[in-house]
Amino acid sequence: MTELLSPQPAPIGELLDLSGRTALVTGGAMGIGLGIVHRLHEAGANIVIADIAEAAADKAAQELSDTTRVRTVAADVSKAEDAETMVRTAVDAFGALDIMVNNAGIYRGSAFLETSLDLAQRTLDVNLLGVMLCSQAAARQMIVQGRGGRIVNVNSVEGVNPSVLGLAHYGASKHAVAGLIKTMALELAPHGISVNNVCPGGVRTPGLAPLLDEDAIVELEKRIPKGRIAVPDDIARVVLFLSSDLASYMTGTQVVVDGGQTLRGCAV
Q1: Rounded CA gap, 34 and 232, in Å?
Q2: Which of 4, 74, 167, 206 counts the highest number of beta carbons within 10 A?
């Protein structure tokens, strides 16, 4: 068995160390995105916080312990020119881009029969095309650098099984991303770039409040084997893993982080 192992396996600390690498996190100003920013920064990465809310991004940057390793950029991920601007910001500030975290997303509830074309289109533009555009811009830069990279998408259990009613348009966007990464992974693997999804279940964020009140959250938690919905750091830890050398042999996969929620099936 020993011949199958590296002669000198790297220590765990080294595999998790992101020092010298640069990560771009979309929607990084709050919620799950902010949790990811904190974990990647703690692991040593330079961070670019991209968010449509510029003031919120600037405020988030001030929370970090070493602001010399942080930049912010105002951007709409559904616009190709903004995707290019985000990547250029990372390269201009830190010389490279190594980790692309597609976290930005729209999460607005609407019963299927009442969902407007505008809401459906905006959801697809941000949740699906945003992932494609930002990943294209990031991958092109990573290929030029010639040292590989990581693309990690914050997808959703709605891209696995529906868990909350009134999210058909959202679920469609997340199922589409689940399909998108498979071909992305195949095409980018020869360049040393891995592509993976993290699929959270319910997470306590500002974006959850308009969709689920506290009573609904209590009911949802009854269906979760772990007994609670997630907090942003539950997701951030898995993003850190997929961004690190611990996950160097993983690509084209979805990691479900839901406390067992999808095991219980039917939507509330």
Answers
A1: 8
A2: 167
Q: Which amino acid is at 169?
A: H
Q: Which H/E stretch holds residue 73? A: strand 70-74
User: Cβ distance 229 to 199 under 8 Å?
Assistant: no
Q: Residue 246: is it exposed, middle or buried by C-beta count within 10 angstroms (0-12/13-18/19+)? A: middle
The angle, 0 to 180 degrees and rounded to 10, between the axes of the packed helices 31-42 and 232-243 is: 50
| Domain layout of the chain by residue ranges | 19-258
Q: How many residues does the chain have?
A: 268
Q: How confident is the model at residue 190 (pLDDT cuts 50, 70, 90)?
A: very high
Residue bearing tokens 């799950």: 32
Query: Which amino acid type is present at position 123?
Result: T
Kindly report the number of other CB atoms within 10 A of residue 178's CB atom: 17
Rounded Cα distance between 23 and 28, Å, is 11
Is beta strand 193-200 parallel, antiparallel or unpaired with respect to 70-74?
unpaired
pLDDT at 7: 60
d(CA 188, CA 124): 23
Q: Give me the active site residues, please.
A: 170
Reported pTM:
0.94
**Two structure tokens written together for 87:** 């990547």
Tokens standing for 127?
């949740």
Q: Does domain 19-258 have CATH number 3.40.50.720?
A: yes
